[in-house]
Specification:
There is one protein chain. The protein is of the alpha/beta class. It has one domain: Alpha-Beta Barrel (TIM Barrel). The protein contains 11 helices and 12 strands. The strands form 3 sheets. An 8-stranded parallel beta barrel has the order 1-2-3-4-5-6-7-10. The chain has a two-stranded antiparallel ribbon with strand order 8-9. Strand 2, helix 3 and strand 3 form a beta-alpha-beta unit. Helix 2 packs parallel to helix 3. The longest helix is centred in the middle third of the chain and has 18 residues. The radius of gyration is 19 Å and the shape is globular. The N terminus is likely disordered.
């Protein structure tokens, strides 16, 4: 099936996938899900629905390597039909770029450009409009040069006819990461030619670990608006943190069980300025032993919708999946 046929079918389903009445939409909440070669986008969607989600994020292949399966357009169309039946807006679905792309470092510049272009092509073919990208680590050459490298890679990657927005993720500042402050993200965006195609993904764990105080989230979002512009915020990663503010470590924790806390995260999730922005959980799986781990997302999404913490979250997740597996 060629891309033209797929795009025509995407247009055919767009009326059902795009909810124009934003005022009546509930919180847009989902999680990271898998993307497997045998069921692809359809499998990702079914996993998200099993969690009670109305959005989701996935990698189109393993984030640590370049191996990618051939996309099956028939499966994509089946996924679109199921989205229609469940009133899920395609514009709220997110793809995450692989970690092996490091735009900030001088090494492997051509690889970063070529592989990122390939990922964008795959995202466009799926009909998805957002891809999250880590700005990368400068690995000793300095943040100023790292930012110049990121701008260079983005300008070589984003073309006038690119249909996907690249969402630069706010980083924790671990090691030599670039993008640890709103000012650094702004500097990158300012250097891109087609800056209308560059957006931002704000990660709560990352900004906590970078030194932003989520006890004062209203001030944070005002600072973001003044420095970057609230119109640039396209995605939120909702994670608690194992670490204190300013630790620069980037270790996610389950919702309400970390240093940020349930109430602060609820302020982010239900902030009126962010109501139409998809919110994605990347919290850790619950470990039973060294070999068995279960996803917490069904129960975390329930907590978020109920606006009440479940102190028994970890045990409830284990019991639910152990019973399901038996």
């Amino acid at each position: 099936m060629n891309n033209i046929y797929l795009y025509r079918n995407l247009d055919r389903f767009s009326f059902f996938l795009y909810n124009k009445d934003g005022d009546k939409m509930e919180i847009i909440i989902g999680s990271h899900v898998s993307f497997k070669s045998d069921d692809q986008l359809l499998g990702s969607l079914k996993e998200a629905l099993s969690y009670g989600a109305n959005t989701f994020m996935f990698y189109t292949g393993a984030p640590q390597n370049t191996k990618r399966c051939e996309l099956n357009d028939n499966m994509t169309l089946e996924a679109l039909k199921l989205m229609k039946e469940n009133s899920i807006d395609l514009r709220n679905i997110i793809v995450h770029a692989p970690y092996i792309v490091n735009p900030a470092n001088n090494a492997n510049r051509e690889f970063s450009i070529n592989f990122l272009r390939q990922e964008i092509d795959r995202v466009e073919r799926l009909g998805i409009t957002k891809i999250v990208l880590h700005p990368g680590s400068h690995v000793g050459i300095g943040s100023e040069q790292g930012i110049k490298n990121i701008i260079d890679v983005l300008n070589a990657t984003i073309l006038s006819d690119t249909k996907v927005d690249i969402c630069l993720e706010t980083m924790a500042g671990k090691g030599s990461e670039c993008g640890r402050t709103f000012e650094e993200i702004k500097k990158i965006i300012d250097g891109v030619v087609y800056k209308d195609k560059v957006k931002v993904c704000l990660d709560t764990c990352h900004i906590n670990d970078a030194g932003y105080d989520l006890n004062e989230f209203d001030r944070i979002i005002d600072d973001f608006d003044n420095i970057i512009g609230i119109d640039k915020l396209a995605c939120l990663h909702i994670n608690d943190s194992k670490n204190i503010m300013g630790s620069h470590k980037d270790r996610h924790e389950n919702i309400g069980f970390g240093q940020i806390g349930f109430n602060n995260l609820m302020k982010v999730l239900y902030h009126p300025k962010l109501k139409d922005i998809p919110k994605i959980l990347e919290t850790p799986y619950i470990a039973v032993d060294d070999k068995t781990k279960y996803p917490p997302y069904k129960f975390e999404i329930e907590m978020i919708r109920n606006k009440k913490i479940n102190d028994n979250l970890l045990e409830d997740v284990k019991k639910y999946y152990e019973k399901k597996d038996s």
